[in-house]
Amino acid sequence: MLSGPRWLALEVKYLDRAQSFYEAFLELDTRERREGEVRLAAGETDLVLRAPEAVPRGGLHTHYALSVPTDEYDDWHARLDERFDLTEETFGDARSLYFYDTEGNCIELGERDVSGPGVDGCFEVVLEVETLEHAEAFYEELGFEPIDWGDQRRRVRMTCGDFDLELWEPQVGIADARGGVHVDFGIGTDDPEATAEGARQDALAVDELDDGLRLRDPDGHYVTLVKEQV
Fold first, then answer.
1. How many structural domains does the chain have?
2. Bridge-partner residues for 89, per DSSP?
């Protein structure tokens, strides 16, 4: 059974500049810095900034969403509006604002029922896929449930708990966002081997890691099934 996201990796050319951006504008603390990589704390999710020096690479032009407490949303909007050309959308009762980082990734900051303070977790990642039908089948085998389809099925939203994965055929979305290419993300599960069983045959690669199992999906994205610590 899948739980929440453990990390999302973004490819950056200049680590210092990207780290400074996320520390200054999203107030993320640095968990760890090593050669070619910086890990920032976004609640229980790590936002990983990775230089293009190894495989798996971080994602390019990735659209992803971070949670902020509902009672902080207006303050975040006012603060970021002074610096960025924001786009705002409302989904039901929840508002989200959109802006871009130094590498062209589209950040969505959405009000959610989280504790905070500040950014507290990642609730959505968007992947660009070649064929929606094949990508949907792969992630359904991993335990994601499809819950919403776009016009002419050019996108599908899939969910596991409080985390959504959107699969987009090549297109431009809200705030001119695009789905990420060669995205690398990790998600928790109590049993990586059992979770991966149905998707193995369609994976381009399967690698055993010390803390889980890493699959490369049919579109070249990497998803690591991280063994939950009891």
1. 1
2. 96
Residue 224 main-chain phi, psi, to 5 deg: -105, 125
10-residue averages of pLDDT along the chain (230 residues): 93 96 97 95 96 95 98 97 96 96 97 95 97 96 94 88 95 96 96 95 95 96 90
Contact (Cβ atoms closer than 8 angstroms) between residue 177 and residue 106: yes
Strand order in the sheet with 29-34: 29-34, 37-42, 45-50, 2-11, 184-189, 222-227, 212-216, 205-209
Whole-angstrom Cα distance, residue 86 to residue 99?
5
Range of the domain at 80: 2-227
User: Which CATH number covers residue 45?
Assistant: 3.10.180.10
Bin 76: left if φ > 0, else alpha if -120 < ψ < 50, else beta.
alpha
Structure tokens at 180: 């990420």
